[in-house]
Amino acid sequence: MPIESVLLPVGLDDSERVDRLVAEAIAVAKPAGATVSVLHVFSESELENAIDRLDIERGSEAATPDVVADRFAPLREVTSQLADADVRYDVLGEVGDAAERIVATAEEIDADRILIGGRKRSPTGKAVFGSTAQSVMLDAPCPVTFVRTGNR
């Protein structure tokens, strides 16, 4: 089964692993000629703050999560690396619970693979704080590659 669509969710806490995430996206997408959909899931307040920082008029066409994500600094490094590697990409923005929106977006774009970052956590840490990556892995409609940072 060919890979045509790769979903790459990137959160604010992915800064220390963004190079590894992008390298994996390039390794998967480039040989297959696949498109990488770079996704950022905003909380309501994060989206409002980004709209203010980017000096976008509220209620305008530019105030959509997709447009804000495309102008969002944390995603610029990702898209720059993908462009340098000559990998097709698009940028998507969503608002809500990260795990739910990642899974829903994977379904909407018919993703063949999700690449998600995370860090090693203790069982207690997972139980108390939850894990976006864990929820995505359990609920995803396609295979998930987990790119980890921290102790190996």
CATH superfamily: HUPs
CATH topology: Rossmann fold
- Quaternary structure annotation: single chain
Extract low-pLDDT stretches.
none
If classified by CATH, what would the architecture be? 3-Layer(aba) Sandwich
- What count of helical segments does DSSP give? 7
The number of distinct β-strands equals 5
- Provide the β-strand percentage band: 15-25%
**CATH level 1 name:** Alpha Beta
Order of helices and strands: EHEHHHEHEHHE
Number of domains as seen in the coordinates = 1
- For the report, how would you describe the main beta sheet? 5 strands, parallel
Radius of gyration: 15 Å
- Strand ordering within the main sheet: 3-2-1-4-5
Globally, the shape reads: globular
Structural class: alpha/beta
Helix content: 40-55%
Name the features.
152 residues; alpha/beta; Rossmann fold
Topology of helices and strands:
Blueprint lengths: L4 E5 L8 H15 L2 E8 L1 H10 L11 H7 L1 H12 L4 E7 L2 H11 L4 E7 L3 H7 L2 H8 L4 E6 L3
Parallel strand pairs: 1-2, 1-4, 2-3, 4-5
